[in-house]
Design goal:
- By secondary structure, the protein is of the alpha/beta class.
- It contains 13 helices and 8 strands.
- Strands 4-3-8-7-5-6 form a 6-stranded parallel beta sheet, sandwiched between helices. A two-stranded antiparallel sheet has the order 1-2.
- Helix 8 links the parallel strand 7 and strand 8.
- The radius of gyration is 18 Å and the shape is globular.
- The N and C termini lie far apart (58 Å).
């Protein structure tokens, strides 16, 4: 069945970017990101946004499909504090990161006022059940038009058709995708043209954090870039490679990029 998408009625403002290890990261903050989402929804534009920490940048160096998905996105926000520091060392002046769970929270607060509708895709059944009840309670007026756990693997063709049909029937303005890296990025790239929702946003573990199934690092640790250490203590078997292998590789790779950047400016 063909789906007709209304033509764009307003221009969607572009966002500048800064490349870090070959990945363009948006020079943005929470307000500009939410304004962009609002503009894309108003234009009924088919868009998707990636939310990148150091892990995303480093896995994209060795996973061509993830790299293609990230580069094909409308933009990628710097979710990790080290990425903000890296961007600033390259000449930007960002005051904060755009942390996926906080972006989702701020979007819920805004949508409760504007009437924008959300669908929650991915994550665990327990998290989705909690969020469907809890988010409208926290943000009166917020409309969650559907929630569906997604399999943590690539979708088969028939399965993708069924999921697209379910998401399209709910007709949300924004689909929040909580599959984690790299599945959520690959899902958004593969499904973007099948879905009529204007905006998809991949937010990793945000569903579990907001549902209270996982603990977030204290803000003091987040500010100094040590959220990774807190999460490693919580889930060492799952996360050891992400942090103990990729973090040192990022430091070395970015040191080379920064040195080349400074030489080029002399």
């Amino acid at each position: 069945m063909s789906i007709t998408v209304p033509p764009a009625t307003r221009p969607v403002p572009p966002l500048a970017s800064q490349e870090v290890l070959g990945i363009p990261l948006a020079v943005t903050d929470y307000t500009r990101t939410l304004d962009w989402i609002d503009a894309a929804v108003a234009a009924r534009r088919r868009a998707y946004i990636c939310v990148a920490a150091v892990h995303t940048v480093m896995v994209a160096q060795e996973d061509p499909e993830l790299r293609r998905a990230v580069l094909a996105s409308d933009f990628t926000v710097p979710d990790g504090q080290p990425l903000v520091w890296a961007m600033n060392l390259l000449g930007q002046n960002l005051s904060s990161r755009v942390y996926g769970p906080d972006l989702m929270e701020k979007a819920c607060r805004r949508a409760a006022r504007t009437g924008q509708t959300f669908f929650l895709y991915g994550g665990r059944e327990a998290a989705l059940e909690t969020l469907r009840a809890e988010l409208p309670r926290r943000y009166p007026g917020l409309r969650i038009v559907g929630a569906r756990p997604g399999p943590f693997r690539e979708l088969g063709s028939d399965e993708a058709d069924a999921i697209a049909g379910e998401l399209n029937a709910a007709a949300p303005d924004v689909i929040w995708v909580g599959l984690g890296v790299p599945l959520q990025e690959k899902f958004m790239l593969a499904m973007r043209q099948r879905l009529v929702a204007p905006v998809l946003v991949g937010v990793g573990a945000a569903f579990d954090f907001h549902a209270g199934l996982k603990r977030q690092a204290p803000r003091s640790l987040q500010r100094v870039g040590l959220e990774w250490a807190f999460r490693l203590v919580q889930e060492p078997r799952r996360l050891w490679r992400r942090y103990l292998v990729y973090n040192p590789r990022f430091v070395l790779g970015f040191a080379r990029q920064l040195l080349a950047h400074r030489r080029s400016r002399r």
